[in-house]
Amino acid sequence: MASQDAFGRTAAPRSSVLNDPRVRGVLYQIVLFVLLVLFIYWIVGNTVDNLRRLNISSGFAFLNQRAGFDISQSLIAYTSDSRYSRALLVGLLNTLLVAAAGIVTATIIGFVVGIARLSNNWLIRKIALVYVEVFRNIPPLLVIFFWYFGVISVLPAARDSIALPFGAYLNQRGFYLPKAIWGDGAWLIPLGLALAIVMAVFVARRARQRQEATGQQFPVMWTNLGLIVGLPLLAYFAAGMPLSFDYPQKQTFNLTGGFAVTPEFLSLYLALSFYTASFIAEIVRAGILGVSKGQSEASFALGLRSGQALRLVVVPQAMRIVIPPLTSQYLNLTKNSSLAIAIGYPDLTAVGGTILNQSGQAIEIVAVWMVIYLGISLATSAFMNWFNAKMALVER
Amino acid sequence: MQEHDLSWVRTEMALAEKAPARERGVVAWLRKNLMATPVDGILTLIGLVVVALIVPPILNWVLFSAQWTGADRAVCATVAQGGSQPEGWSGACWAFINAKFAQFMFGRYTDSERWRVILVAVMFVALLVPLMIPRVPRKGLNAILLFLVFPVIAFFLLVGGAFGLPYVETQLWGGLLVTLVLSTVGIAVSLPLGILLALGRRSRLPVVKAVCVIFIETVRGVPLVTVLFMASVMLPLFLPAGMTFDKFLRALIGVALFASAYMAEVIRGGLQAIPKGQYEGADSLGLTYWQKTGLIVLPQALKLVIPGIVNTFIGMFKDTSLVYIIGMFDLLGIVRQNFADATWASAQTPMSGLVFAGFVFWIFCFGMSRYSIYMERRLDTGHKR
């Protein structure tokens, strides 16, 4: 087997081709691939057999059948005569609603608690610590049950509703708010808002250009605040104040009118917010601690006030540390919203579960779940990655 | 050289002066920590108001107004609700926990066989505690007993059906038993599986890498509830007719697979943090891939990610409560199920049960996180940047 190279030296004898790492790698992969294919073949074969035996026809045609069940909360028109596909859409919208509301609230609570954890004030620091340690160490499902069975279901019955400011009521059937009724010409208001946002973006861009060119600053924040509040207000008055409220009315056994937030939504929303906020607080704390002290000292040395130092120097750098884990917390919150099924909030998982029980189309429903949740995850990650790239350190 | 005659030289250090009066003692501490600035003072006031609003009612509910003993719901309900308490009373119903305690621990596990569960628990603690205390010797033997011998014994003790022990079906299991079995088995499976997946994800072999990436990203993208549904509804479809899995085992597979995907990402973080020189050094010593990984890379990588690993454990421990959704009764599930018990149903029962369950979960999770902080400090060899 020995061969000679150009200089007449004898190359080391090779014992076997199998010792070549590249050959081995290819072999391993072929074995893995074959095993995987056999495994999938086995599973698919079994599934087809089982489905035939159980008389379940596969495919997504069942989505056009009549749903036949009611959904307690729906953002779009839905009756029990609607199709399965419509029911799933209602579920998806409910998931998105509770996730979006929860993300906003959890972020606010989380940032407040996270900053409070670093406060110079001993008492504030300890309160924040207790909050974080309590909520981080109990299951989210327990927090949901806590709000649902422990708090909301022991509120007074509708007859003895707790009256809150602005005509709102709270009882064990939910939270009743006045409902806004928009009259004719109300479309002017969103139009005004849209116009204001466009102008605000324009103003901000021009102001930055001017500052870069001449060094002169322009009060961007106040101008834009004025625009965004002022233009819709102007539109509101121009349209002749087309807004009235439908207040919930207290009857003997029930509340009528108004806008009702269901106890299920309220429990889930509060639980997800409080639970996730404890994680966000730790992330924020780590982010602020991660910016070296020299940065804020240097900004003081440059003569920045403490607010400016925080806004221009510390927070932008802390955000770089905070954003990636914050993204995964947002995703966790969205995924945890599937716990809704435990208290009967009609989210995607709960509606899908009902359909699964009715139609027996397990594979299709699980596929729908996976595609939608994966889609939400990927979309959120993509957005946060874009945001992260925007905030990232620009290096040479 | 002539000796200088110095009239006086101090030969010992002067004792440190005490700090000025305004810098020590309770008052100084208060001033520094609670009232450094006017804003601080206002914050302290707000904090005090919050504490005053929250703590006394909680203490009152948990301790002073709580009912510790009783036979049924009468002790935990007001007169108007058909009980014996005065109007407006509100307090924890620990009598409910007291009456249901055995059920919360074992579920419906056969009464006469519960000594087996207790024996397993005692063995587990007796093997785990010495392993966790660094000073105790014979770690190797201890680890073999815990990881190889104990699981076999525990399996036969818990399930039975051999050595003259009656068979106890997993349908009857419940309470803390289910929570602990699911989470310990999940931990034991997810760590090695997670390591393999993480190594696979960093492999140079494209097929291995693709399989691992697809598995990890798919599992991480969907909620555990969906994975559990899949395990409970779809797994039977995947198997040949006649071959069935125990429901408990299906849940176990779901939880373990779910946790291993998260574990893989944590461990990958550790693998990425190991400098390239370590890999190259191992290669130049002529180590094979598995020697390199097992002797050089993993010991360093795992040490780096201990906090992440423990966080995953804690997450999994909490997530076991989700098996309630597919109809199994872990600690939280069985507490929830007992809300409907007519003997005990009262306005205070749900909250009491949940506070109890929360406390048990909290003890375990908090303990794990403290131990992880301790280990992290102990293993910190000062190489951290």
From TrEMBL, chain A:
User: Gene3D superfamilies from the xrefs?
Assistant: MetI-like
How does this protein lie in the membrane?
Multi-pass membrane protein
What residue intervals traverse the membrane?
26-44, 88-116, 128-149, 185-204, 225-245, 265-284, 366-387
All copies of domain ABC transmembrane type-1, residue ranges = 92-384
Molecular function GO terms recorded: transmembrane transporter activity
Q: Which InterPro entries match?
A: AA_ABC_transptr_permease_3TM (IPR010065), ArtM/GltK/GlnP/TcyL/YhdX-like (IPR043429), MetI-like (IPR000515), MetI-like_sf (IPR035906)
Q: Name one GO cellular component term.
A: ATP-binding cassette (ABC) transporter complex
- Keywords of this protein's UniProt record, alphabetized? Amino-acid transport, Cell membrane, Membrane, Transmembrane, Transmembrane helix, Transport
Q: Which GO terms describe its biological process?
A: amino acid transport
Please identify the protein, giving its name as recorded: Amino acid ABC transporter permease
TrEMBL record, chain B:
What is one Pfam family matched by this protein? BPD_transp_1
Tell me where in or outside the cell this protein is found: Cell inner membrane; Cell membrane
Q: What biological processes does GO assign it?
A: amino acid transport
Which cellular component, as a GO term, is one annotated location?
ATP-binding cassette (ABC) transporter complex
Q: How does it sit in the membrane?
A: Multi-pass membrane protein
Is Secreted tagged as a keyword? no
A single MF term (Gene Ontology): transmembrane transporter activity
The family this protein is said to belong to: Belongs to the binding-protein-dependent transport system permease family. HisMQ subfamily.
What is this protein called in UniProt?
A: Amino acid ABC transporter permease
Q: Which organism is it from?
A: Kumtagia ephedrae
